[in-house]
Amino acid sequence: MAKSILVANWKNHPGSLAETKTLLAQLARSASIYKKLACFIAPPLTYFGVCSERSRNFAHLASQDISSQPVGTYTGQITTDILKSFGTKLAIIGHSEQRAMGETNESVSQKVKVALRAGIMPLVCIGETFRDQDGEHFEFLRNELQSSLAGLNRKSDISGLVLAYEPVWAIGKHAQDAITPTDLSQSIIFLKKILTDMFGRAIAERVPILYGGSVEPDNAGVLFKETGIKGFLVGHASLNAQSFKTIAVSIISKQ
Ligand code: PGA
Fold this sequence. Notes:
Layout: E1 5-9, H1 17-28, H2 31-34, E2 38-42, H3 48-54, E3 60-63, H4 80-85, E4 88-93, H5 96-99, H6 105-118, E5 121-126, H7 136-148, H8 155-158, E6 162-165, H9 181-199, H10 201-204, E7 209-212, H11 217-224, E8 231-234, H12 241-254
Helix pairs in contact: 1-12, 6-7, 7-9, 11-12
């Protein structure tokens, strides 16, 4: 994907349809900015209808998860055919908040395959819970990445995939608590090496890696610059139109 990538992970917000419409209207005012990026909005499923109508001019629709089941009858599951009927282009898979509720590397790798088969881009989230001076988190990252992408080895699989590095300890805080550019660069180099070991350099280099975890207007520019990332997965700051726009501008001015 040539353009830088910006993904809004709305989680379980806004709290009402009315607030969702207000946020969409505010975002739409900066459509010309978002169009310079590959911008995605991942709203709660209940807002898919209104989001697919009102954001299509400046963002693609994304889901926050995906069913591991391709077709059939599964109460409570949202399958790829439903997601695709709304125009969903990307699915966040393996977010740490899902992993905390029982998502395993095995189910992540299954969901990745389901998404790829359906033509939905998987955005696979990985990230350590703790970062220590001994570097033990690198071993955790290696295992999580390898297991989450288990069974993928063809060029065509990998070329449709995006990775999000989201250290769990940095999620849901503020810019000052996020990762430093130096540590982010180190993690990105490491992840690229693992991808290269798994798929070869030429293919690995084409996998975009995003960063997520307390990305705010205050740190977006410095984190984007010279760390090797291709964009951001933004949680709380994506619910504030002004903050999200500033993050978008930071990327555009540094790409
Ligand atoms: P945050 O969330 O930006 O609020 O830290 C990021 C995420 O959980 O994807």
